Amino acid sequence: MSSLRPGDAGAASGRAGAAVIGAILLIVALAAAVSVDVVKAGQGVKGDEATYVAMALSLAYDHDLTYERRDLERYVGLYRWGPEGIFLKRGKKLRVRFDGNPPFVHLVTLPDPRTDRLYYGKALIYPLVAAPFVRLLGLNGILVLHVLLLFGACLCGYTFLAARSRPGPALAFTLAFVGAACVPVYLVFLMPEIFNFSLVFFAYFLWLYKEVAPPEGFRFLRGLGTDVCAAALLGVATYSKPSHALLVVPIVLWLWWRRRYAQGLKVGIVSVAVVAALFGVNALSSGEFNYQGGDRKTFLGRYPFDGSPVSVWDQQGLEKSTNDSDAESVLTDLPNRFSLNVDYFLVGRHFGFVPYFFPGVVAIGLWLFSSERWRAWRLLTFATIVASVVGLLVFFPFSWSGGGGPPGNRYFMSLYPALFFLVPPLTSTAPAILAWLVGALFTAKMLVNPFVTAKHPNQIAERGFARRLPVELTMANDLPVRLESQRSHLPYGDVLLYFLDDHAYIPEAIDSEGHQGVWIAGDGRADIIVRSDWPIHHFTMTVESPIHTLFIVSAGGSESQIPLQPGKAVTLDVPASGVRDAQSYACLLSARSTEAFSPFLRDPNSTDRRNLGALMRFTAVQAAR
Q: Is pLDDT of 435 > 90?
């Protein structure tokens, strides 16, 4: 009779334990996904949700991708409000013409003869996958889809690591890689972020599992067909978001490195063919290959076919076509802006790689300090991630985080899975513990209530360790605070103010002549972005307080500390240093009062219960050209 060796018994027990933990997590997540009230918990729509939800509903119930009156009525019936921020476009009829002039075959677009329909201005693949779940479970079906996708990604990650690691460390690091980053927050976004994340994870698993698989591993995952499947999945991801285009390159280069030239060429062709086919389906649907191109607009407050007596399309829609890159904005001040964006990408307060994807930092460190650091497929994977990030920073210098003030870097999140496959064999749970401990410093607050985080991402960095990190000034108009209209884009003289926290109060009239001032609270440092059409040399500032306090202020330059006496105003110049963003200049004004008072405690007739420290008035002085 044969008997299990102690090591085999331990591994079997570890695998059984991992299976139990995985099953429990899946059941809990699915139970939450099917029972939560998506509309109420989500507090309405976020980001591009309106478009994707409307598309999924249209596919689930009408089996088409056209926006008509019934689609608006269905959406309003669920949300009790219109699809805020929906992207729509006018359709066209695509016709093929043959003639005697090269290239002899021509594509001709004609206006859509029907005026009672429009088309959606987003990629169709995610709503297509979500539609059966929506038909079965309503909007909760999208959450169920996200749970299943993320569980599948974790299963692939665990299988990859467990091929050469003990089950315990493999499971611990897999859960840390996903759970200690900003990834779980996107489970509650009704958008394709989890979908794209999972596509990349599945693709790289299919490509690389055979490189680490033990002899008794899954044989069906060792064939060359897995490379083709991986290429197809990456083609789908690239159609969904073109920033994934480079991710197929390491698969091709790895095959060529091993002198499998025909196989590498086939993989590349499959990926390109899938992308082309999906864009072709888009053209057949709406008459436009580019779902973001053509006559495309977004709508707020009023929507086409809502019964308005005026043309909502002509008078309410905001033009939002994306056909070409703006070469001038990309090239202007490129070296300096790129250098700043690299710093912001790595350690930015709102979108930084280190704070919001710290397990990826651990993965890179494990790889660099292991004997696996010179393995070609790992080198190719890392080089591709770096190249993709450089592309984002160069070609999207003012929106490389995904736009709309997302929690963490939305564009990078679907590149992030590739970092997992840098991890060498693990012998202990120490890397996972490190990933959890440091990652949680920045992401635990996000996971306490992901629905609130998703709706109000500005709250992530208002307190805690993220407050110590630099603000991404090159994207001042794309930070999470921009979603809070009462705290951002506020005129103050000839500049605009963005209040990044609640340690200062918005400008208010302080005298009968209408002069404005800003009260700094006494409960912490206030960070305020100041935007102007010209570079700011310094601020001429007047500060006063009815109490003894120390006022501390800086604006990117040296810090000033001013002791204030009750009722005595102090005037000073505060040197400023800022950066150029898309269409203006921005600098960070930081101010703090060491002491505070409450007006209603000093004056029985006052109803002002604010915590006040010092009153600040300032004028921005333009730098010499």
A: yes
> Does residue 99 surpass a pLDDT of 80?
no
Site of tokens 């870097």: 409
Instruction: Tell me the backbone φ, ψ of residue 624, rounded to 5 degrees.
Output: -65, 140
Q: Model confidence at 3, in pLDDT bands (50, 70, 90)? A: very low
Instruction: Give the other-Cβ count within 10 Å of 616's Cβ.
Output: 25
Which pLDDT value is given to residue 404? 83
Cβ neighbours of 613 (radius 10 Å): 29
Residues 6 or more apart from 275 whose CB is under 8 A from it? 235, 238, 239
How many angstroms separate the CA atoms of 592 and 612, rounded? 11
Residues 6+ apart with CB under 8 A from 77: none
Which is nearest to 583 in space by CA: 505, 496, 493, 499? 496
- Does residue 125 register a pLDDT over 50? yes
C-alpha–C-alpha distance, residues 19 and 171, integer Å: 10
pLDDT at site 321:
56
Classify burial at 8, counting beta carbons within 10 Å of its beta carbon; exposed 0-12, middle 13-18, buried 19 or more.
Answer: exposed
Backbone φ and ψ for 339, nearest 5 degrees, come out as -60, -45
Q: Report the candidate in 485, 483, 452 with the shortest Cα–Cα distance to residue 40.
A: 452
Would you say 166 and 425 are in contact if contact means Cβ atoms under 8 Å apart?
Answer: no
Q: Which residues contact 181 (CB under 8 A, 6 or more apart)?
A: 356, 357, 358, 359, 360, 408, 416, 439, 443
Confidence of residue 432 (pLDDT cuts 50, 70, 90): very high
Radius of gyration of the chain (CA): 27
In angstroms, the CA 435 to CA 173 distance is 8
What pLDDT score was predicted for residue 625? 66
C-alpha to C-alpha distance for 586 and 589, rounded to whole angstroms:
10
